[in-house]
């Protein structure tokens, strides 16, 4: 607004409108002068994410939205209700370039980064559809994409989401999950006061190299060093996500190594039983195997929680996001081109 020769407070007014659930058109901005509204109508416009589909799981209360962006790309956002509050899992990229071997999003490849408004817009759109009373309490960057590979836009989206003029989320309720881009982890902590989750999944470099190509660039020592340097708000802990892959990473030795890796880091461990992805080489563990591994960790004094698989029937479970719309459209294109 200042670059247009307007007072700065006009910018705050406009920003507030743009992030008000239900806002649809610049005509509604009645507290701005008419001339300014005319210029806005001429030079600006509002794009709301287009909802392609909303599907609810029959197995649990999980709900998945597919949103179409202006360029036709489709992204997915998952709502995970809990007893007292819901968590919304947002996407930060269309696809993902990190290529983790066990992940369906990874197998889709990378298309592009989401803009700050496309990221925060997922939250706004869901709130508009659920009603403000039912807005999700926690936000996690665990949808499609590697958030720290889209660092600036992710940080900007968190500033929008946590702004008092915007959706006013407490940064304590926002968690960024990463496959381990070590330098960006430290940068994130210096930049903004949010929760951090690390997708660890292995306790040796040889296995982690095999599962997650990023480990060849930032091996476990470097990753753990970055976690130690991450500015953690008082009384907070880093979440370590650990997919239990049958026969690969849940032995007694793994528990010992994990304890050594996490030594001195305020942490909690989320065990995720592997969600089977067709065509990939990994197997889901039995419930017993997950419980046994959990016990080994608890006996060492760790907080280790088993993350229930949610929304498996609607492909909304961890690592299952892979826009069906994109798949279908690719199929149509494929078939028309012969
Ligand atoms: N790209 C970020 C966040 C998105 S994925 C990251 O990797 O951290 C959210 C979590 O689901 C990550 O811990 C990821 O490793 C895990 N995940 C991926 N594929 C999975 C699968 N098939 N089964 C279980 N968890 C999976
Ligand atoms: Fe990307 Fe995360 Fe999937 Fe790895 S696990 S491919 S970083 S979305």
List the topology elements.
Layout: H1 8-18, H2 34-43, E1 50-56, E2 63-68, E3 74-81, E4 86-89, E5 93-95, H3 104-108, E6 110-113, H4 116-130, E7 138-141, H5 151-162, E8 174-178, H6 182-191, E9 195-199, H7 205-211, H8 214-217, H9 220-229, E10 238-244, H10 252-262, E11 267-273, H11 287-299, E12 304-306, H12 324-336
Parallel strand pairs: 4-7, 7-8, 8-9, 9-10, 10-11, 11-12
Antiparallel strand pairs: 1-2, 2-3, 3-4, 5-6
Look at the structure and name the CATH superfamily of the largest domain: Aldolase class I
Largest sheet: 10 strands, mixed
Corresponding CATH architecture of the largest domain: Alpha-Beta Barrel
Mean pLDDT value: 92
Low-confidence stretches: none
Shape: globular
Walk me through the structure.
This protein has 338 residues and is of the alpha/beta class. It folds into 2 domains: 1-46, DNA polymerase, domain 1 (Orthogonal Bundle); 48-337, Aldolase class I (TIM Barrel). The protein is built from 12 helices and 12 strands. The protein has helices at residues 8-18, 34-43, 104-108, 116-130, 151-162, 182-191, 205-211, 214-217, 220-229, 252-262, 287-299, 324-336, and strands at 50-56, 63-68, 74-81, 86-89, 93-95, 110-113, 138-141, 174-178, 195-199, 238-244, 267-273, 304-306. The strands form 2 sheets. Strands 1-2-3-4-7-8-9-10-11-12 form a 10-stranded mixed beta sheet, with helices on one face. Strands 5-6 form a two-stranded antiparallel ribbon. Strand 8 (174-178), helix 6 (182-191) and strand 9 (195-199) form a beta-alpha-beta unit. The radius of gyration is 21 Å and the shape is globular. Iron/sulfur cluster binds at residues 96, 98-100, 103, 105-106, 145-146, 179, 199, 319. Residues 102-103, 142, 146, 177-179, 199, 241, 243, 272, 274-275, 277, 318-319 line the site of S-adenosyl-L-homocysteine (SAH).
């Amino acid at each position: 607004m200042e670059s247009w020769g307007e007072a700065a407070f006009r910018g705050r007014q406009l920003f507030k409108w743009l992030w008000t659930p239900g806002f649809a058109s610049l005509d509604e901005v009645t507290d701005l002068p008419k001339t300014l509204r005319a210029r806005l109508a001429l030079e600006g416009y509002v794009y709301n994410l287009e909802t392609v589909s909303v599907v609810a799981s029959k197995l649990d209360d999980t709900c998945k939205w597919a949103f179409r962006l202006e360029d036709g790309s489709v992204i997915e956002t998952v709502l995970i209700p809990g007893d007292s509050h819901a968590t919304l899992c947002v996407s930060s990229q269309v696809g993902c370039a990190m290529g983790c071997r066990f992940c369906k999003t990874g197998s889709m490849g990378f298309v592009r980064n989401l803009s700050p408004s496309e990221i925060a817009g997922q939250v706004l759109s869901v709130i508009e559809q659920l009603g403000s009373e039912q807005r999700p309490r926690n936000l996690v960057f665990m949808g499609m994409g590697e958030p720290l590979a889209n660092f600036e836009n992710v940080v900007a989206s968190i500033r929008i989401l946590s702004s008092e003029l915007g959706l006013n989320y407490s940064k304590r309720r926002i968690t960024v999950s990463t496959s381990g881009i070590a330098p960006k982890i430290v940068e994130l902590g210096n930049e903004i006061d949010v929760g951090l989750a690390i997708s660890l999944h292995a306790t040796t470099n040889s296995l982690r190299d095999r599962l997650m190509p990023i480990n060849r660039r930032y091996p476990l020592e470097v990753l753990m060093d970055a976690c130690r340097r991450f500015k953690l708000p008082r009384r907070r802990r880093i979440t370590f996500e650990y997919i239990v892959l049958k026969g690969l990473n849940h032995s007694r030795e793994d528990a010992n190594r994990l304890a050594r890796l996490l030594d001195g880091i305020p942490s909690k461990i989320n065990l995720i039983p592997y969600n089977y992805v067709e065509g990939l080489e990994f197997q889901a563990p039995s419930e017993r195997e997950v419980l046994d591994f959990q016990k080994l960790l608890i006996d060492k004094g760790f907080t280790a929680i088993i993350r229930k698989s949610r929304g498996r029937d609607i492909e909304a479970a961890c690592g299952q996001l892979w826009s069906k719309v994109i798949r279908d459209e690719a199929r149509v294109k494929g078939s028309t081109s012969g």
